[in-house]
Design a protein that fits this description.
CATH topology: Spore Coat Polysaccharide Biosynthesis Protein SpsA, Chain A
Helix content: 25-40%
Number of domains: 1
Radius of gyration: 17 Å
Structural class: alpha/beta
Strand order of the largest sheet: 3-2-1-4-6-5-7
Oligomer: single chain
CATH superfamily: Spore Coat Polysaccharide Biosynthesis Protein SpsA, Chain A
Number of strands: 9
Largest sheet: 7 strands, mixed
Order of helices and strands: EHEEHEHEEHEHHHEE
CATH architecture: Alpha-Beta Complex
Length: about 200
């Protein structure tokens, strides 16, 4: 199975702008990418990075600065074997979660993110194409249904948790054990419990 990891190499994680400056966002995004690549390898995969600009990683890099939908569909069109697509900001992903994804039955296997997104999927149907605009989880189920393709949905906290906002950093500090969590700790972030709610603060 071919495993592709899309990565926004230029100005990543802009929604963390209130917490991290531009250089910090670059470094944190790179740490999350490395965690995802490690998890893919430990799950038995051989990851390729589908990046919007050249990146220095220990994996093959495909540079494609088009929107995510176009870039991923180009990979699907050019590949005869099954393809897994795993986004690069899954900072708490584990090899076990990815093994479940890779081994799940179905022409299309979807690991939904929160708020209607698609954080990972496996495509075995030759005519399936992605659409990452809007509520992509719903759209991917519709596309598969129109093709007559079987769909499996994988419910996984590790795969559902992509990191985009300050609140997501709580999940990384609570459940992460890789480079992304260590980066946050080294940058002075810690959990803060106030009024029964868990947040992060920076020393």
């Amino acid at each position: 199975m071919r495993v592709v990891v899309p990565y926004a190499a230029e100005a990543p994680k802009t929604r963390l702008g209130g917490v991290l400056d531009a250089d910090e966002r670059d470094a944190f995004a790179a740490a999350m990418l490395e965690d995802v690549l490690y998890a893919v390898r430990d799950a038995g995969g051989d990851p390729e990075v589908l990046a919007t600009a050249p990146v220095d990683v220990d994996a093959p890099v495909i540079v494609d600065d088009r929107p995510l939908t176009d870039a991923v569909n180009d990979v699907l069109e050019a590949t005869d074997e099954p393809v897994a697509v795993v986004v690069a900001d899954l900072a708490i992903v584990t090899p076990d979660a990815l093994v479940r994804l890779f081994d799940a039955d179905g022409d299309v296997v979807i690991a939904p993110g929160r708020a209607g997104g698609t954080n990972a999927l496996v495509v075995r149907h030759p005519d399936f194409r992605v659409d990452y605009h809007g509520a992509s989880y719903r759209d991917h189920r519709r596309i598969a249904r129109e093709l007559g393709a079987s769909v499996a949905v994988l419910d996984s906290h590790q795969l559902a948790t992509d990191v985009d906002t300050r609140a997501d950093l709580v999940e990384v500090l609570l459940h992460g054990d890789g480079l992304a969590r260590q980066w946050l700790v080294d940058a002075g972030f810690e959990l803060a419990v106030e009024g029964g709610r868990v947040d992060v603060r920076r020393a």
